[in-house]
Specification:
Structural class: mainly alpha
CATH topology: Glycosyltransferase
Number of strands: 0
CATH class: Mainly Alpha
Radius of gyration: 20 Å
Strand content: under 5%
Shape: globular
Length: 333
């Protein structure tokens, strides 16, 4: 006999829905943080109002807190679902999005609260390096299926490239050495992982529609690598420009696929995978606009910033509308 009252059932329903909350949704925090940093930089380069970047930074921070609390509830109420997600050969890689968020938020909040930025960066750096070690160990300890070599594989290890984004600016003791180490690991692993993923795309079945947005992740190592290398090296040399140009070429190759998504498949939370690579490329283009003054570089930076802003705004509206309508399970699967 069911003794649950209607009010208790109604209260339990939101908690049950959180069992379908994908950890990959933390990619939205990465995208919002990157967009905030891009608009902050645009204020310096293009003269746009400074409050836009700061407001987006507040949105990114509040969104992280809300999402962290929601996923914490999932950890308590549905631990089996969390374990299954972590052990999944593709979805498990997206746990790195939580850690990358911890590495990007310090760059956002440093002007407001230096001590908190320092703490988040230290925690994020330690956990990111540990997670990267864990994932490489997993890959080399168990035979992998070629079909599992998706762009998601880039996130755990190449995510170390996000350590120098705030690490150098914070100026903590030893942060330069740690950032250089993270840069070396991220750039080195970009080479074999990119090769494996490209081979899978060429010789295996195409990615399922829900994973198509993840293709834009291939842009991230080069776009983020450009900014990370500049921070560590303190200059933009030919190697740095090479990273930016590769990112730009890959973006041009993949953009048509991304623009066709609304027509080919229904919206999923996995679409947020496009947000951070776009933001990272917009940031890189703004930095190039400073290094190479002239209308072509400025026009490219403005176009990428506008595209990134429009796509992230659309993703945010669609995600919030879906959650409000109780569609989280549909959006996540």
């Amino acid at each position: 006999m069911n003794t649950t009252t209607p009010s208790e059932s109604a209260a339990a329903a939101p908690v049950e829905r959180l069992a379908y909350l994908p950890v990959a949704l933390f990619g939205s925090i990465m995208g919002l943080s990157g967009l905030a940093l891009a608009w902050r930089l645009a204020g310096q380069v293009l003269g746009v109002p400074a409050w836009i970047g700061e407001a987006l930074g507040v949105v990114a921070l509040l969104s992280f807190i809300a999402l962290a609390l929601a996923y914490g509830v999932k950890c308590v109420s549905a631990p089996a679902a969390v374990r299954a997600e972590f052990n999944h050969p593709i979805a498990g890689n997206f746990f790195a999005t939580v850690l990358i968020s911890l590495l990007l938020l310090p760059a956002v909040i440093a002007p407001w609260w230096q001590a908190l930025a320092d703490l988040l960066w230290i925690v994020g750096t330690v956990l990111m390096l540990c997670f990267a070690w864990l994932m490489v160990r997993r890959w080399t300890s168990v035979r992998q299926h070629p079909a599992h070599a998706t762009p998601a594989w880039i996130v755990p290890v190449v995510g170390t490239l996000d350590i120098p984004i705030a690490g150098i600016a914070l100026g903590l003791p030893g942060s330069h050495a740690v950032s250089a180490f993270a840069l070396a690991v991220g750039l080195w692993f970009t080479i074999p992982l990119f090769t494996l993923i490209l081979s899978r795309l060429l010789f295996e079945e195409p990615l399922p529609p829900a994973l198509q947005p993840a293709l834009l992740i291939l842009v991230a190592p080069f776009a983020v690598g450009f900014s990370a290398y500049m921070n560590v090296a303190g200059q933009a040399d030919l190697f740095a420009y090479g990273l930016f140009y590769v990112a730009l070429f890959l973006f041009a190759v993949l953009l048509p696929k991304i623009l066709m998504l609304p027509a080919c498949c229904p919206f999923k939370t996995s679409w947020w995978a496009v947000s951070f690579p776009l933001a990272a490329l917009a940031i890189a283009s703004l930095k190039v606009a400073v290094l190479q003054p002239g209308w072509p570089a400025h026009a490219l930076a403005i176009a990428l910033l506008a595209l990134c802003s429009a796509i992230i705004a659309a993703l945010a509206v669609r995600t919030l509308a879906g959650i409000a309508r109780g569609e989280l399970k549909t959006l996540a699967t």
